[in-house]
Amino acid sequence: MKKLPLTSLRSRLASLILLTLLPLLGLTIYTYLSEKNQVVAHIRQDVLRIAQFAARDQEQLIERTRQLLLALSKLPEIVGTDSTACRNMLSDILEEYPRYTNLGVIRPDGQLFCSADGRPREASLVDQSWFRHSLKTKDFALGPTPEEGTFDICYPTVDDAGHIQAVLFASVAMDQLHQFSYQVRLPAHAEFLMISRNGTVLAHFPEHDRWAGRSAGDTAIIEQILAKGQDTAELPGLDGVTRLYAFTPLSTVVDTGFYVGVGIPQRVVYSEAQKVLLQHFAGLGLVIMAALLAVWFGSEVLILKRVRAMAGAVERLSAGDMTARSGLPYGAGELDGLARAFDEMAAALERRAFELRAAEGKYRTLVEQIPAITYAANPDQLRTTFYISPQVIEILGFSPEEWMADSGLWMRQIHAEDLQSVKRMLDDCCAVLPGANFRCEYRIFSKAGRQLWLTDEAVCVRSERDNGYYLQGIMIDISERKTAQEQLMSYQRQLRSLASQLLLAEERERRRIAADLHDHVGQALAISRIKLGMLKEASPSEEYATRVDEVRKLVGQAIKDTRSLIFKISSPILYELGLEAALEWLAEETQKKHDILVKYWDDGSAKQLQDDVRVLLFQAVNELLVNVVKHSRARTVELSTRKTGERIVVNVEDDGIGFDLAEVAARRSASDGFGLFSIRERLSHIGGDLEIHSEPGGGTRVTLVARLSKLPGPINEDRNMPVRDEK
Questions:
Q1: For residue 103, which of 45, 90, 406, 491 is within the disulfide window of CB 3.0 to 4.6 Å?
Q2: pTM for this predicted structure
Q3: Could you list the residue range(s) of the whole structural domain that residue 680 is in?
């Protein structure tokens, strides 16, 4: 079978088949994991039951021994003074209980009184933990005697006065403690162990002689048993082999302090689940193999034969044979439709090739007539030019031959201040070939020394001659546009200055109108109200007095409206008490009129401001508060002023619905009035700035920044406008 590259159609079809089978593979693995977890859970329960069964076997031994010792404590030979009679009695009993290795009686001082095996014990037993525990509790006790390889269970006899007369004991060989493992028939390489609470191994299967009586408290399995008491865990055993262990404490009528553990090898635990997985994978492998064989042989007949015919036609077409066609019959299938489309495309290309040759002549004529320089150059650090249009003579004064003959001419003519940026942009362009684009505006000197502005744009295209790349571009003289732009910027600066002057003139006119309203209309209304009061006092009748009082109230309301109008036209507080006081008054008025909580805070530092800055900031904050009331649906607005270096910072922040900055910028127009972008333009003119932070649903924060005045100066020559109410 011929080996195919991964990019071949057959390989792609095979990959597609494999991709479609991936969900089936995932389902197989998922089923295996699910079945594996269930099998392991059942095995954990079985192993734990085995451990509990082993514990019950040992518990029954201890309980039977306790009953035997309790019965022996009632015999006179045992508690008497004749050690020979005691030994004979215990020897007879030991023959009836072969599971015990010895029976005996110990005096309270630890000396052996008698034993069934008749062997004297010269050493005192007072150091044995089980003996001391029995003396202390006057009850049953048990524990190992490692030096003799036994497991001893003892019981004290007590007289009527409560004094211990003797301690009876029964010894069991440690190698009998694991006899249960032979009854249960544990699998190969399984492990059974019985330990004490200090980590000493009392019994072990299958290596009892190696481990019995040894301390193994530093092994992982012993640490886990002593820490949890009863559980299951996968851990290395005493021999380092990892098994599934189940362990449980040994419980009787007394606190034994012993634990029983059973370990099953991992291969036994997972063998059934792995067998199922292999069966699933074998079936899946057969399905995949059948699918790949179907793709391999079926693709040749149904797809590859037609694709090769079309590929041959494409090769001929790309080689320049415009008469190349697929030669396949047209039908209703996708490949039939592709063949039809290819043949139609080839016919269209044949027509286009003829039209292109005619258009190339027209294009060359056009290129040489447009008022711009077109060129083709190599993508190197000097942009070595191998074609440049005749317009270079008209614009820069160099002939095409001069330009192409001197590879460094272009760089030498560029203005020194623009040369580094042009080189850097050219380096960036050369570093990302192919697909690079070059666009730059720079100053250049003509052959006669006249400075021009050029915009230079080029794109990297593939060369048909050497399969390489070259920068094809156009240079346009934009000197007149640059001059117009500089003039426009100058006009804009003048307009901003005029706008600032207009703002101040408008504010002065507002103040003059406000002063006239106060001095003439306001005073006239106040005097009229006073005279109406006097007329009311001198009225000839009560009805007459009532009508005069009604007129007097109307005049009073007119006074209030006039005063409010004065504050709207030009706030006296701004000039009498400063920007901070005016903003605090504006916050209170907004809260009072629109039922919205407006908090104001100031850092308390002195902030000297020029008139135009003071007026602009006050009007800007007023406009922002109006926008909040109209559009934000906010419940709280926080207004603050602080000094930062040589600048004043004013923050207006609300908890409203917010807005999309891009959307607002797109729909703004000249009719927006004194809006956010108008405020930014005015602040920019006086060296300030405006920042907006907002998002739908997240509220809005607008920050106004302006420069402080270094030298104090008069705010306004007219400070006689009162701000208090007349009675």
A1: 90
A2: 0.36
A3: 578-727
